Amino acid sequence: MTSNFAIVVDSTSDLPEELLNKYDFTIVPAWVVIGDNEFRDRVDIKREKLLHELVTSEEKITTTQPRPLDFINAFEEILKKYDKALFLGVSTKLSATYQNAVIASKQAGKDRIVCIDTLTVTHGAGFLAHHAALRREQGMDLDKVVEEIMELKKDIGLYFFVENLDFLLKGGRIGKAKHMIGTLLNKKPLLFLNKEGEIDSYKSVKGIEAGFEEMKELVIQYAHKNKNFVLGVAYGEDNKEFEELGQKLKEKTNPLYYSQAPIGPGVLCHVGPNIEAVIFMKIPDSMVDLYK
User: Fold this and answer.
1) How far apart are CA 249 and CA 242, in angstroms?
2) pTM
3) Domain spanning 5-153: CATH 3.40.50.10170
């Protein structure tokens, strides 16, 4: 018997279609701003359109977080169907989304809504939402699910390779990676989200192939250290080589769960079209059976 709580995420969680089709998630979209026009992420503007705009448009392209009213409307609607709600938001070091959800929860749900700063983004937040959905299917109550989410979010790795830092610089999301700018020269940045949920520099590499090799080694080393984990690969523009790398890593490391999906507009606005990422999350022994 399933537990009666809703699972709410913002659109930067980039949940794969397979999970959206299987579970009842509520997605509150970020706003993509192109010039003077605003679009709801993944609703009014799709990934393909945004990729085109990033390459061709001379307008300023950015995002704004969902407003408190967006969350109020979403929370009030889902609480007609569910007893409680769990919101899993993008890292507060990347967006004010979580803060707006908390403001809205006090008005719309009082003690019926739990908001968590995931300290991550894209598939990292998606992994946590997936875990919550699996536990909900088992009938676990919300308080226990929250305990597990708080444990899981401590051990999520997200490493990503970008062609350059221009988009991150324009959007002000560069975080602790600022010091890397002067050292790049003809190299490319390999970045990661640190334990505080902030973008940090891992190392600079000589090119795309070197970046892929570094990410490959990171996953393999993680798999050796943590027998039980979940793995995801995410990307901006379609990249057959990177998708093939993901499949090879899946076969080599045998994760409990594997996802491969594109990154959506809400994230692409800040990293640019040329991004590849690997995401992994440790699954404690007490939770392994959930994925088998």
Assistant:
1) 10
2) 0.93
3) yes
